[in-house]
Design goal:
It is a single chain. This protein is mostly helical and 169 residues long. It has 2 domains: 4-66; 76-163, no CATH class. It has helices at 4-16, 25-38, 44-51, 55-66, 76-92, 110-125, 144-152, 160-163, and strands at 99-104, 132-137. The longest helix has 17 residues, at 76-92. Bound molecules: S-adenosylmethionine. S-adenosylmethionine (SAM) is lined by residues 66-70, 74, 104-107, 110-111, 137-140.
Amino acid sequence: MKNGYQQILLLLREHTGVDFSLYKTTTIHRRILRRTVLNKHNTLEQYAGFLRGNPKELEALYSDALISVTSFFRNAETFAALQHKVFPKLLQQGGDEPLRVWVLGCSTGQEAYSIAMAFTECVERSSHPRKLQIFATDLSGCGGSLWRRTAATASSSRCGSRWCLRGRT
Ligand SMILES: C[S@@+](CC[C@H](N)C(=O)[O-])C[C@H]1O[C@@H](n2cnc3c(N)ncnc32)[C@H](O)[C@@H]1O
């Protein structure tokens, strides 16, 4: 017999095809608890019962569980390593083909745009010109217009006026 938590993961998997048992348990558990309380249930078993045959709530939980938080240059240390170590090394190797980057779990695209900006700044300082192709995917499916809005608000302090596209859509 599965406990409430396991039942919920199973219902999510049946509804979305995503197996959340492979995700960080504490994070998913917290998200499930949040929706349990929000829907005024006392136990995970009760919430599992509420979820069964309830596509609207399954979608809401799915969306919560994916956690789409993002921002420009979100992990400063990683971007510093990309700019000062990884990109210079790749550029030094030379080559005619564009370099390719795949941003897995891109949310609304800020990480992909940050990589493009970081690479552009790097390639301009290099004597080895090279193009970059970025592929960005996410389970939650970002639409084209959403990405255009992301580009239009590329205005983190790091971006400065050069990358600030605010007002253009
Ligand atoms: C916390 S956000 C991180 C966004 C971005 N990578 C960043 O670091 O700013 C996590 C994203 O991963 C996506 N995600 C979670 N599991 C995924 C999977 N199996 N395949 C693709 N995207 C996934 C979610 O939809 C969410 O948008």
